[in-house]
UniProtKB/TrEMBL annotation:
Domain of life: Bacteria
Classification via Pfam families: ADH_N, ADH_zinc_N
Stretches assigned to the Enoyl reductase (ER) domain: 12-321
Protein name: Quinone oxidoreductase
Keyword field: NADP, Oxidoreductase
UniProt KW NADP keyword: yes
């Protein structure tokens, strides 16, 4: 089969996604040739498509996939042809085949399907660093997690609860509220309710020590208003748009708050961190702390529809494209 990929030549709406034949060379030093079996769709793909996150064009979109090693280049000792592997956070995933630096691959354990790895590794590793390393949750702590029915939200909520925290999750619809009730102690539909006010009620006026906010612009102020004194806003995404500039004194006025804007790449910067983060996520799946799933499947050629559904808040959990 001729390798194909979804390319973007100029930023824009989902119609700029173009399925095209591509050349894939033999792997060079340190590289692996991968035949991809399932590809993850993440919100960050939309940011790159629209130009919110700038990148060199033309590009092949996508950050995450699973597949089988077809060939290895000189110096690759960790992997061999036939190995099942996955990766997250490496541009160029919307393709049937690709070359990739072997140092960015992780082995996929038996018992984890290619679809599950491709559809949830990026979100699972994100949840891992957010709730265990950016602001570690602790037993008895009450935390607020936005978009709790979404990809990162589902995993982070389940995991935080398994670690002993009480989870307040926000969602945008009644049907998502029903879903999120399976893993949140309290669910707030922020399309209908003032979530900061509800958080105050739930916490007896105290507020929460941490808010994990991947929604961005629409929730920023309310997230600050949900925090207890010296609490931390972990602002990790822009699903509703980027948080606008603000004066740092706002953090003082709202309770000597902390704000961090983390990204997965900086929490998986070394090979050791990457392997440990992925292994911790796969262990959480294996021991039942987290039940992650792929909620939506599309043909690779239908990537535009996957983007439309994700942007229109129609999806829950992981999303995969199948080559
Ligand atoms: N910094 C990092 O390392 C990192 C890594 C991975 C993901 N992220 C971020 O985490 C967030 C979640 O990513 P995901 O891929 O798992 O997506 P997702 O949560 O499955 O989808 C985004 C959700 O955000 C909510 N949302 C609220 N307002 C929205 C709006 N105006 N437009 C679209 N969605 C809106 C929707 O849930 P409701 O309908 O329930 O409101 C939607 O389902 C994204 O912001 C993403 O960029 C960050």
């Amino acid at each position: 089969m001729t390798p194909h990929a979804i390319c973007v030549h100029q930023p824009g709406d989902a119609t700029v996604l173009s399925y095209e034949p591509v050349d894939v060379a033999a792997p060079g030093a340190g590289e692996v040739l991968l035949r991809q079996t399932a590809i993850g769709v993440n919100f960050i793909d939309i940011y790159f498509r629209t130009g919110l996150y700038p990148t060199n064009l033309p590009c092949i979109l996508g950050q995450e996939a699973a597949g089988v090693v077809e060939a290895v280049g000189p110096g690759v000792t960790e992997f061999q042809p036939g190995d099942r592997v996955a990766y997250a956070g490496v541009m160029g995933a919307y393709a049937t085949h690709r070359l990739i630096n072997a140092a960015r691959l992780v082995p996929v354990p038996d018992g984890v399907s290619d679809e599950l790895a491709a559809g949830t590794l990026l979100r699972g590793m994100t949840a891992q660093y957010l709730i265990k390393r950016t602001f570690p949750v602790a037993p008895g702590m009450t935390v607020l997690i936005h978009a709790a029915a979404g990809g990162v939200g589902q995993i982070a909520s389940q995991w935080a609860r398994a670690l002993g925290a009480k989870v307040i999750g926000t969602v945008g619809s009644t049907s998502k509220a029903e879903l999120a009730r399976h893993w949140c102690d309290y669910v707030i539909n922020y399309s209908e309710e003032d979530f900061a006010q509800r958080v105050r009620e739930i916490t007896g006026g105290q507020g929460v020590p941490v808010v994990y906010d991947g929604v961005g612009a629409a929730t920023f102020e309310g997230s600050l208003d949900s925090l207890s004194l010296r609490g931390m806003l972990v602002s990790f995404g822009n699903a509703s748009g980027a948080v606008p500039p603000f004066a740092p004194v706002l953090l003082s006025q709202k309770g000597s708050l902390f704000l961090t804007r983390p990204t997965l790449a900086h929490y998986t910067a070394t090979r050791e961190e990457l392997l440990a983060t992925a292994a911790d996520y796969f262990a959480a799946l294996a021991n039942g702390m987290v039940k992650a799933g792929v909620g939506q499947r599309y043909a690779l050629t239908d990537a535009a529809q996957a983007h439309r559904d994700l942007a229109a808040r129609k999806t829950t959990g992981g999303i995969v494209l199948l080559p």
